[in-house]
């Protein structure tokens, strides 16, 4: 039972890292848009890379177990929630 908790904690952590990579990559991509030569190619390339890394991570992490996938998704979505709140409050302060 203890081993399950450790595994699930690790799955949650890795799901959070995937969220950080995905949403952090999105934030970084959007911030660089005004300075790139081909913005549509930049966005498309970023999207494909972020989705490829994230989906691959989830497939490997889940290992065919829907509960592990669910826990990883919770970590992923928690990072999104934190980033939206943090970046929204930073934007409001800067405005």
The quaternary organization reads as single chain
Radius of gyration: 16 Å
Distance between the termini: 50 Å
Strand content: under 5%
> What does the largest sheet look like?
none
Helix-strand pattern: HHH
Tally of separate helices: 3
* Low-confidence regions: none
Which outline best applies? elongated
Mean pLDDT across residues: 91
Structural class: mainly alpha
Extended strand count: 0
Report the helical percentage: over 70%
How many structural domains can be distinguished in the coordinates? 1
Can you tell me about this structure?
With 95 residues, the protein is an all-alpha fold. It has one domain (2-94). Helix content is 88%, strand content 0%. The chain is built from three helices and no strands. The longest helix is centred in the N-terminal third of the chain and has 31 residues, at 2-32. The relative contact order is 0.17. The mean pLDDT is 91.
State the main characteristics:
single chain; mainly alpha; 3 helices
Write the layout of secondary structure elements.
Elements: H1 2-32, H2 39-62, H3 66-94
């Amino acid at each position: 039972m203890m081993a399950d908790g450790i595994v699930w904690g690790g799955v949650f952590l890795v799901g959070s890292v995937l969220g950080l990579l995905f949403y952090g990559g999105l934030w970084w991509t959007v911030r660089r848009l005004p300075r790139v030569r081909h913005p549509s190619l930049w966005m498309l390339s970023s999207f494909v890379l972020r989705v490829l890394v994230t989906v691959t991570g989830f497939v490997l992490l889940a290992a065919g177990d829907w509960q592990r996938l669910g826990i990883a998704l919770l970590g992923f979505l928690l990072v999104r929630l934190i980033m939206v709140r943090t970046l929204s409050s930073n934007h409001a302060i800067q405005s």
